[in-house]
Amino acid sequence: MAFTMISIVIQPSVFAAEEMVLEKVMKEQEKNMQRIAGGIAREDYAQVVKASLAVIDPPHPSSTLGEKLKLMGFLGADIGRFKELDGKTKERAATLAKTARTQNGEATIAAFQRLQMSCLACHSEFRKPFQDYFNH
Fold first, then answer.
1. CB neighbours of 59 closer than 8 A, spacing ≥ 6?
2. What is the pLDDT of residues 1-40, one digit of tens each?
3. Cα 53 vs. chain centroid, distance in angstroms?
4. Were both Cys, which of 1, 93, 128, 135 would link to 55 (CB 3.0–4.6 Å)?
């Protein structure tokens, strides 16, 4: 009951000043996707593998309990869908790493395309609502 009262009283704009861990992770993921694209362009499959594995488990600081509660409040009933999309993205990144190890350029590009589509699916559903919720 106390947590509910807190979420009603504190507006999301209170949190907009400080970058959330999720935002930091997304920035790191953007870098990983650029590393993958660069590795594919240079046929540097070791880099593609390394960056793909980083997509699965990007380094990030731990979220505070407050941030976790804010995210749960934002996601609400959609938390399962968010986790599903996150899981699919990690699965596709693992497939990309496995494919890149074969050093087959066309297959690697196709696997990267599937990873990008997975990212797009999540961003299409959650990015704008997330930004609207936390940046007002």
1. 28
2. 343 333 333 344 444 457 889 899 999 999 999 999 999 9
3. 13
4. 93
- Where do the domains of the chain lie? 19-134
76-106 as b/e, with b when 16 or more CB fall inside 10 Å? eeeeeebeebeebbbebbbbbbebbeeeeee
Reduced to 3 states (helix: H, G, I; strand: E, B; else coil), residue 43 is coil
Instruction: Output the six-digit token pair for 88.
Output: 């699919």
Unique residue bearing structure tokens 């959609």: 78
**What CATH class is the domain 19-134?**
mainly alpha
Question: Tens digit of pLDDT for each residue in 30-89?
Answer: 999 999 999 999 999 999 999 999 999 988 788 889 999 999 999 999 999 999 999 999
Contact 55, 87 (CB under 8 A): no
